[in-house]
Design goal:
This protein has a 7-stranded antiparallel beta sheet, with helices on both faces. It has 4 helices and 7 strands; from the N terminus they run H-E-H-H-E-E-E-E-E-E-H. It is α+β, with helices and mostly antiparallel strands. It has helices at 2-16, 39-46, 52-55, 140-162, and strands at 26-35, 59-67, 70-77, 82-91, 94-101, 106-117, 124-135.
Amino acid sequence: MRALTSICATAALLVSAGTTLAASGVVTSKGIEIKGKTAADVLAKFGAFCAIKDWHPAVAKCDESKEGNDTFRTLTLKDGGVIKEKLTSKGDEGYSYKIVESPLPVKDYMATFSIKKDGDGDNAVRINWLASYQAKGKTEAEAKAVIEGIFDAGLKSLSELAAK
């Protein structure tokens, strides 16, 4: 039940941040719980827009840049691929972004990454990653498998690093 509540809260964050889920397409939502850490500690270490380079095993480099008032990150992947993403909103518990350019089999990709206190105690953290998108050049099932693989690898690594 707690996971469902977290997913609904993250979806509400997407909508309230001005990011709407695609009317049709695919939604991928993954989350993990980390015990023995505070949300503030995990946010400080892993919550910055370009911190993904520190915890996602596929990311070799992250460069953050400004274009006017907009913030972007350019992810250079270990396989040589490049993904450019635009920060669409930032809050106390995370951020929302959309993909601008990517070799991934998706379009209209919008996501929210959040880190928040989980439950009544101070030493439990819930990390959620939620994205909506449409398949591009692949079936919806194939696109979903790619995004789920990215989320799973990142959250597994994040869980291991945060537990240290």
